[in-house]
From TrEMBL, chain A:
It is found in: Cell membrane. CDD domains: TM_PBP1_transp_TpRbsC_like. It comes from Thalassovita aquimarina. This is ABC transporter permease. InterPro entries: ABC_transp_permease.
TrEMBL record, chain B:
PANTHER family: ABC TRANSPORTER, PERMEASE PROTEIN, GUANOSINE ABC TRANSPORTER PERMEASE PROTEIN NUPP. It is found in: Cell membrane. It comes from Thalassovita aquimarina. This is ABC transporter permease. Signal peptide: none annotated. It comes from the Bacteria.
From TrEMBL, chain C:
GO terms for molecular function: ATP binding. Residues 6-237, 253-498 form the ABC transporter domain. This is ABC transporter ATP-binding protein. Keywords: ATP-binding, Nucleotide-binding. It comes from the Bacteria. Pfam families: ABC_tran. Transmembrane segments: none annotated. The keyword ATP-binding applies. The keyword Protein transport does not apply.
Amino acid sequence: MDLSSINPILLLASLIVAATPLLLAAIGELVVEKAGVLNLGVEGMMITGAICGFAIAVNTGSPVVGLIAAAGGGAVLSLLFALLTQFAMANQVASGLSLTLFGLGLSALIGQDYQGVKPPAFPKGDIPILSDIPVLGPILFSQDFVVYMAFFLTLGVWAMLKYSRAGLILRAVGENHDAAHALGYKVVRIRVLAILFGGACAGLGGAYISLIRVPQWTEGMTAGIGWIALALVVFASWKPWRVLLGACLFGGVSVLQLNLQAAGVAIPVEYLAMSPYLITILVLVIMSADRSRAPASLGKGFHAGS
Amino acid sequence: MLKLEKRPQPSQFWTYLTPLLAVALTMIAGGVLFAFLGKDPIVAIRTIFWDPLFSEFAFYYRPQLLVKGAPLVLIAIGLSLGFRAGIWNIGAEGQYIIGAITGAGVGLAFYPMEAWYIFPLMVIAGALGGWAWSMIPALLKVKFGTNEILVSLMLVYVAEQLLASMSLGLLKNPEGFGFPGSRNLNDYASANSWIHQNAGMHWGVVAAFIAVIFAYVLLNRHMLGFQIRLTGEAPRAARFAGVNPNRLILICLGTSGALAGLAGLFEVAGPSGQISIDFNAGYGFTAIIVAFLGRLNPIGILLAGALMALTYIGGDIAQSKLGLPAAAIQLFQGMLLFFLLAVDMLTNFRIRLGQKEVA
Amino acid sequence: MTGTLLSINGLTKAYPGVVANDNVSFEIGEGEVHALLGENGAGKSTLVKMIYGLVKPDRGTMQLRGDAYAPAEPSAARAAGVAMVFQHFSLFEALNVAENVALGMENPPGMRDLAARIREVSEMYGLPLDPDRIVGDLSAGERQRVEIIRCLLQDPKLLIMDEPTSVLTPQEVDILFETLRKLSAEGTAILYISHKLEEIRTLCDNATILRLGQVVGDCVPRDTTARDMAEMMVGSSLLVPERAGGTVGPVLLKINDLSVASPSAFGTSLKNISLEVRAGEILGLGGVAGNGQDELLAALSGEIPTAPGAVELDGKPIGGLGPVARRRLGLLTAPEERLGHAAAPDMSLIENALLTGSVREGLENRGFLKWGKAKSFAEAIIERFDVRTPGPDNAARSLSGGNLQKFVIGREVMQRPEVLVVNQPTWGVDAAAAAAIRQALLDLAAGGAAVVVISQDLDELMEISDHFGALNEGRLSDIRLAKDLSVDEIGLMMGGAHGMEVAHV
């Protein structure tokens, strides 16, 4: 065992890389849940985004086009969920599960020709001057632009929910869809838009894993990150800044256990590998005491005629 | 403009018809998918749904129907009880793994002794293993209100790591030349779940049929089944009727965990034979599709389990004969659940052509 | 009153199986207080939803100040100067007052300006409100103020009020009427929907009466007796329930200093409640919605466990028992919410009969269900309480509100309770069904049961109660003989005016 092989600065920098896909998926799901919809298909949308982004990036040679395709792929898949829950009035839990099962199958099918392929490299986005700051520079300001984008997306979602009229209406729909309908707001339309946003974010998060973090394609490579993102929204009590905090915490756990594996700690690899999931459970237990922040209409179907 | 109109009460007609409609739609969409992959859709569909039952090699495939169907039905029956009550155990895959580990562990502990009581003890251990694994989300939900969906799912990943650890460590075959994986229980007469291997009969098949009958009686004739249905339909009314929601959570999650554990045990002691890293084949997740396709009804689940087993076997045939990728079958199964949920609205809503209501 | 503000010509709206509005026409003048009177199910709600742009008429037209008026959605109605105060509030509990107001406005000012405007207008009209408070923490009366303020901030020409007084004490009603009269004097027309005749006689200039979707007459309420209006509304003369006036027996139900926390986030906790009910007696408990009624019923039904001694039945402590054990001993209850609480909407009437009847009617044997017996029980309820349904196999949700309520009350009454506790037994129920339910409760008491009726309908309580008490913020007033009480006294028992003041304009 050699703990000194772990470089704290590199560890923290890779923590941010590990946190980014989680942050993207969770901030998208937060918006969906704020609109009163529970989409359990995050894992399916992420893996679909991962393969869409990967395939398009390989074929076009452009990782940026890949990211856009990933967002599109996630959004298209989430549209299926929107159709089921908002128009066919299907149960949201069952629909979310079906989305995940479907997404896993779809990605495996698309991805069969991409095993072992190397994607085009993603450019680093060193921010001039700031990235030269010792310690903080390499951790915070020497990342790729998706990291910065995820941060600003979080900022944007927070500001929208707190200060804008659109955010107020979104929260209103999530709190009481009957009242929102009575006031003339288009509940279904607003929810569909939120679901699409969530799908695009999850797709981006998935592509971040396949194009930047790993970077290669393997079947089922999201390995539960989508589910952890769902847990993260609960952990965050539906607050954007706490999603950011939670993403860093979970990113830290997964990076740390990988580093410990590499350093050859006396704990068997399997037990280290299960730690992110166990910690997710632990966090859920601690946070479940306070359910009061959950949007009141969360998970309930809305039909204008009833 | 199409308009949905809520029916005064659920339609009996559509309750029975929607699964068939979903299967038909999936076949059509699946055919399109197979055509995209460059396969003749008619041939592909026939290979999946017809050949396992009626081709010249059907004598070989038909027993497989029992082998693949039994774990699906066994798990789906357990899941359906919880799903009916609005208790979502989606970690059956994990309970299945743990049941296999504990069951096989008990059997291997007796090796090489031969005795009649070894297999029954393994069955008990398998059920207890699955039950204990499902008690984690159950107790956390009862004590702290923790979301059982996320916890049960997280435990699948934990169980997979445990499985890897067991195959590489504690349960590794000491005479296995260093390969991962346990001893093969098929070579150990006292720890074997086969009744008639060539006919596909093993104790898991028997258990699946018993579970179907048991669930049918429970849901239709017993107060507990009524309480389960009532809780799913109207939780407040259930409380008012005197149902203890915590008791129901423990019963539903416990039962589904025990049944999933049993399915794992029967699999490891029969068709699979050994604990290995890739022992689990996703039955725990496919069973979710089976449960919904069977409309959470025991008889329906039996039929849905058979159908899903057919797609597994037919998928294998299509893979070897037509070169259809395995993932296409996985996608096909996912589509089935999609279409089912989509057409399900017909039981509760009527579609009308009419002018648009202000929404 | 100067000219016509809104004229409605031949509005028709049909839903599957029912014509909600059939060729409805009437006019509202500028500044007029116009009553829309009718029973539950007469089509009042559908009509106002059409005026407010929530529902599109199948046929017919509307004119606002002479121009064609056909709002496609509520925002169009609001832009045209039509505002509405809903009966079931269109409020968001987790949001604060200012946010709720902003959601109901077309172009709300910035939050800080809006908060100032809310303070100003609410004080001007005697409806004080703090814009920063979370709506879930407000009382029912305060929530209504939020709705009214939301409307007033938009200077409406027509204000629609759907059953506004059902959540107010008599004192609060007086103050609200003062406010409405002021508004009317300033030129705002008010369409006032109610089935309470005395209120309409005090407040309204004209009345249009609806029955089964049709206009059956109009009148000037001040010049028409309540009895005449009632007959127009119901279509026949009303049966007044008969009281047998049986003898009063020993105390059957006793509550001793009961305090429990509400299980829901925005509920009302019960504080030090004590009462006694004797055999053969009906105790009426009044109070504005949200003052602990649901919690009291849940504490009596066994849904909320309490200290064992806090609830006594026949002298035995039962506070620690669950619903099934209480039913076995003879304490039966019927909650307010029919669909989803008292009955499971998608289950058949047989299954719903089993829901509470399994113990006392012997519908199970060691856990196994006797479906045949359950079916006979359901049929017996349907027969005796005249529940209109094709048969006991039909789902609860397929019944009309009144019929389902008869079924729910009938289910408990048929089980021969020692003590029956009902919450809002006739809420949303047509007059004939309401009369039948009240008669059943009176008969039950005459037969020696102790009955507790929790209701927000004071007329109902005065009609059937022997004793009366009122819930206010989770506390119970003194219990007094019902026949000695005046409306003013009742209002004070319910908490008086709750901080409302007469409008300052």
